[in-house]
Structure formats: structure tokens, C-alpha cells
Amino acid sequence: MALLPILQYPDPRLRTRAQTVVEVTDETRQLVASMFETMYAAPGVGLSASQVDVHQRIIVVDVSKERNEPHVFINPEIEIVDGMQRLEEGCLSIPGFYEAVSRADRIRVSAMDEQGEAFSLETDGYLSVCIQHECDHLDGKLFVDYLSNLKRGRIRKKLAKLQRENRVRR
Ligand code: NI
């Protein structure tokens, strides 16, 4: 396991469309373990492989308070069941910014687990939001894409300034 560097917005690599995982191997499981370590250390509630510059369709999520309900989805496919919700979202690639986004409430997600076994999960609320947010990353989409151009521009500018300041400090 290893802590992996997380790409920061507006890094263009975050716009890469991730590839389908053909076979779940030991290498996949090592990546998943490192993704969990990186997510918990950040700390965050979800992480996509795209954010650690590995462009494969893999996400990890844990929205529990005790940080003991890890979910792995390999090649996740989302089907919307019903409802809408609007919750505040953040992202480890856009640290310090939180904005409300409208998304489906109840979803069914079909995926493979770490053993390469197919499964599906029906869920709603915060876990559903988190899965949808992470799946967007696999298509190169970020939560700021749902905001107005004005809001997104402001976030981008502030982050560029912070990144410049950090570089100077180092
Ligand atoms: Ni994110």
C-alpha cells in the first residue's frame, strides 16, 4: 500500500475518460488498497482512480462516521431509480470548496468487487451522491461542472492562486 498523490483541479488529466477494467488482478487489489489508504488519510469519503492518475474504472467510497464501511466498485454502471436530492459536495481534487449539486436520489449501481465478482447495490441519500460524484470522475467530469461558469471561474482562480502560493512556500 502507498499514499498516492491526488491530482488537483484544474489539472487536465482529471478530464481523462477512464478505461474499463478487463480483469481484476493482484495489481488491481493493490491499487484499491492504496486508494483506500489515500482516501482515509486525506481524509475523504470517496476517491476515483482518475484522481490518482490511473485511468481505470475503479472507485472507492466510505461515508460511515466510523470509517469502517468501505465500498469498492470496479466498472460501475449507474441506473437511476427515482427521486432528486440536492446536497453540498466537495472533492479531494478541489480542496476547500463546497457547493450544492442536484442529483438523483435512489440509484442502482452494478459493478465488480475486488474478486472480480459482479454485484449490484441499491442505495439513496449521501452514499448515492458520493457514488454518482465518483463515477463522474471516471468520465472526466467534476462537481464544479454543475455550477455556473461564474462560480466555477471563481473557484478556479482561487485555487490557482493557492497553488502558486504553495509552490513559493516550498
Ligand atoms: Ni471528487
Topology:
Blueprint: H1 26-41, E1 46-48, E2 58-61, E3 71-89, E4 99-112, E5 118-123, H2 125-138, H3 149-169
Antiparallel strand pairs: 1-2, 2-3, 3-4, 4-5
Residues 91-93, 133, 137 line the site of nickel (II) ion.
The total strand number stands at 5
> What's the pLDDT, averaged over the residues?
96
- Output the strand order for the largest sheet: 1-2-3-4-5
Largest sheet: 5 strands, antiparallel
Which structural class matches the secondary elements? alpha+beta
Helical segment count: 3
Taken as a percent bin, the fraction of beta residues is 25-35%
Overall 3D form: globular
- Spans of 5+ residues with little confidence (pLDDT < 50)? none
Would you mind describing this structure in some detail?
30% of the residues lie in helices and 27% in strands. By secondary structure, it is of the alpha+beta class. Strands 1-2-3-4-5 form a 5-stranded antiparallel β-sheet, with helices on both faces. It is globular, with a radius of gyration of 16 Å. The chain contains 3 helices and 5 strands, in the order H-E-E-E-E-E-H-H. The model has no long low-confidence stretch (mean pLDDT 96). The protein has helices spanning 26-41, 125-138, 149-169; strands at residues 46-48, 58-61, 71-89, 99-112, 118-123. The chain binds nickel (II) ion (NI).
